[in-house]
């Protein structure tokens, strides 16, 4: 989730949120003087429920931040937002962020998660995403670049969410419910992997293919 904050129509700050917990901590501390701020929110490859959107609205409202617009490529999120009278739009486009090199270098980076990703969990990264542990069915992981799972990948994995097709998804045990690279989607195989070796998914001629992951030493 990307949040662009403005104060009196002047750019103030951009924030990349990997989870609702991080978002709440950021919003609770971003406006100590309680000025009226407006927020444009971009949420890609994440299905937000009505309850999650209500929680998000309350987090912003409690810090005197008005939601100017909510842009998403999830139809479920869009319908829920419209129902809650949020100014929501369907969009595949990444936001144009005002230049702030110091902030960009600080906030756009790889993310490593150590531990199991359970059903219902959603983890994302603004660079590469590295999971050291299993990703259970019902969990969703996403990244602007590549995804590497040092464990079992049995949930949904989405790489290249910023439009990059030269991304890959690798796992020690690749048995996903769904894979997505940029806008190309593949449903995981019904059969479990027979061979116990790492595999990698990547785009070839417009379709996702899975190959053995070979490491040159």
How would you describe this structure to a colleague?
The protein is an alpha/beta fold and 217 residues long. The chain has 2 domains: 2-105; 110-212, Pectate Lyase C-like (3 Solenoid), CATH 2.160.20.70. 18% of the residues lie in helices and 39% in strands. The chain contains 4 helices and 16 strands. The strands form 3 sheets. The protein has a 6-stranded mixed beta sheet, with no helix packed on it. A hairpin with a 2-residue loop joins strand 1 (2-7) and strand 2. Helix 1 (20-30) packs parallel to helix 2 (50-62). The longest helix has 13 residues, at 50-62. The radius of gyration is 18 Å and the shape is elongated. The model is unreliable at 99-106 (pLDDT under 50).
Terminal Cα span: 37 Å
What is the approximate shape?
elongated
User: Biggest sheet, open or closed, and with what strands and sense?
Assistant: 6 strands, mixed
Spatial arrangement of strands, main beta sheet: 6-8-10-12-15-16
| Oligomeric status | single chain
Mean pLDDT: 83
Beta fraction: 35-45%
Taking pLDDT < 50 over at least 5 consecutive residues as the criterion, the unreliable ranges are 99-106
The overall number of domains is 2
Question: Which helices and strands appear, and what pairs or packs with what?
Answer:
Elements: E1 2-7, E2 10-16, H1 20-30, E3 37-43, H2 50-62, E4 65-72, H3 75-83, E5 88-90, H4 101-107, E6 111-114, E7 122-125, E8 129-132, E9 140-143, E10 147-153, E11 156-159, E12 168-174, E13 178-181, E14 184-187, E15 199-204, E16 207-212
Helix pairs in contact: 1-2
